[in-house]
Amino acid sequence: MGGVLRWFSRFPRALPLAIFLLITGLTLLGVYAIERAESDARRADIEQLAVEVSSALERRANSNAAYLRSGAALFASQESVPAPLFQTFIGQLRLDANFRGAEGIGWAARVNTTDIPAFQQAMRESGVEDFRIHPMPRSDQAYAVPVTNLQPLTERNRRAIGFNMYSEPVRGEAMREAEETARPTASGKVVLVQEGGENAAGFLVYMPVFRARPGQNGGRDLKGYVYSPFNAQDFVDSALQGMENRTVQMRVYDEEVAPERLMAERAVGEPGGEVVRQQVNIANRHWIVVLHSLRPSALSQISLITLIAGFTCSTLALAIAWLLTRQAVEAREIISLLEEQAAIRNSLTRELNHRVKNTLANVLSIVSLTRRRATDIDSFADSLDGRIRALSATHDLLTQSEWGTTPVRSVIEVEMAPYAQARDALVEMDGPHVELAPNDALSLGLAVHELATNAAKYGALSTADGKVEVNWDLVSEELVRVRWRESGGPPVPEKRPRGFGTELIEKIVAHELRNPVELMFETSGVRCTMLIPVRKPSEFMIRAKRMQQRIDGKG
């Protein structure tokens, strides 16, 4: 459990995001299930509709076939089929609404090629003016099957009178099949002569009429055909009356699904993903009905409600979880910060006690050495005052850094400030950024103070042409070297008494820095080289600063 809490402390956005994604995922899964159910319902609906459509088309075709069968039975018993007989037959049929969609019922006689002139003359004498068979049979055809009568005889149907249907391959194939099977047979896709040049799909249903051959048992000859021409679109529309409001797209093809085989269609809208195919038997010929469900304009109403509700819940859960998680994380961070700050305070307290003891020991050493070198009370007070002030200035730096690390440059700048401010051109400082421990910073401050005081009294800072250079560089990762060099000042005498500053630097400072100090009084000026340990920041201090920055950034 603790590992989980720590993980969420490192990644506070993980828990709210996980809750949001979980609820969103469940919502999307619910929407998918709803849409899948809607799709299944649409598919079941169009499958049922496909059955209804196929049944309606077959009923309409069977009704027409029944009329053609009755006509074939009547005309087979007659020697010929004159126009009055055909018209009487049509009148007695009393065709009702079941015959809608057809152009009518026609009679097409079989006429041998040699009998065509006599047949045409007989038709003209019977009252059909200008009757002629067209086109004439080809040389390989023994007979023609011209349209002899077609009822109702409208202006549209008059265009078909005399047309030799056997000359056209699709019609001829259907006639031969009807003759072989002796039952109503539908043709393939054709353009009816009645269309007058319009490219509208149509088809015909043929029923053969035979006459018995005299003197031969079972023999028979083809007498002609009772047939019905159909505009395919009208046929389908009439069969599907009452289904106009069904929201599907439908296409009807002749035997195979191909653009050139399209017979009729109903395009209500853009088709969707559900497709159903149903085979229909139309007078001994197969049609294929293809139904497409219409593509919904958007998600279903219940899916939209589910989606909105799910996103609302997930957003609320995200906000609540984010607030609670953020409060929990902030509380844990504050507790951790307080614990680390307490550890820092305890460490600082122990370190302060240690530094105070060291500082008091330094002060006692300074007082003792100053007293031994002082000739009167005034010189003792002045020397002691300057050295105590040097300690105070370095202590101010340590206080500002909360007794953490202090840069070398800051220590040197504080001690050299009185001289650099007054005479900028005479003091040069250069070196990288290096951090010192508090005790080492105090020791460096004392050494620079003593060197600067000596230079101001006797050395380079006592004349207008004098110059002091303070440089530092890293000898290694654990050690920094500080160099003091004076030039341009009064010559340094070869014989000179050892002063307190020399003893302070060579004894106290060298002891505190744990490294020897090289101090040389050359004629051109004083030179001093010190090696000082480099302090690395402690781990708890880095962690405390990072935690504080994180809290400050949130605030």
Automatic annotation (TrEMBL):
Organism domain of life: Bacteria
Residue span(s) of domain CHASE: 77-290
PROSITE patterns from the UniProt entry: CHASE
SMART domains according to UniProt: CHASE (SM01079), HWE_HK (SM00911)
Reactions performed catalytically: ATP + protein L-histidine = ADP + protein N-phospho-L-histidine
Transmembrane annotation, as ranges: 302-324
MF annotations from Gene Ontology: ATP binding; protein histidine kinase activity
Subcellular location: Membrane
Record keywords: ATP-binding, Kinase, Membrane, Nucleotide-binding, Phosphoprotein, Transferase, Transmembrane, Transmembrane helix
Any single Gene Ontology cellular-component annotation: membrane
Main enzyme class: transferase
BP-aspect Gene Ontology terms: signal transduction
Principal location class: membrane
Gene3D superfamilies per the UniProt record, alphabetical: CHASE domain, Histidine kinase-like ATPase, C-terminal domain
Enzyme Commission number(s) of this protein: 2.7.13.3
Pfam families hit by this protein: CHASE, HWE_HK
DNA-binding listed as a keyword: no
Keyword Nucleotide-binding: yes
PANTHER family the UniProt entry points to: HISTIDINE KINASE, TWO-COMPONENT SYSTEM SENSOR PROTEIN
Name this protein carries in UniProt: histidine kinase
The organism of origin for this protein: Croceicoccus mobilis
Lineage: Bacteria, Pseudomonadati, Pseudomonadota, Alphaproteobacteria, Sphingomonadales
